[in-house]
Amino acid sequence: MSQFRYAGRHRAHSEALRARRLLVPIALVSTAVAGGIVVQGTAASGPSADALAVQNLSNSVGSLEPDVRDLAVAAAGSARQASAAGSRDASRMAMAGVVSQADEAAALADAEQARKATAAKAAAAKKAKAVEAARKKAQRWVSPIANYTLTSGYGWRWGRMHPAQDLAAPTGTPVRALSTGTVIFAGWSSEGYGNFVKIRYWDGTVSWFAHNSRLLVSVGEQVKPGQVVSYSGSTGNSTGPHLHLEIHPRGGAAVAPRAWLGQKGVRL
Question: Is 10 annotated in the active site?
Answer without folding.
Answer: no
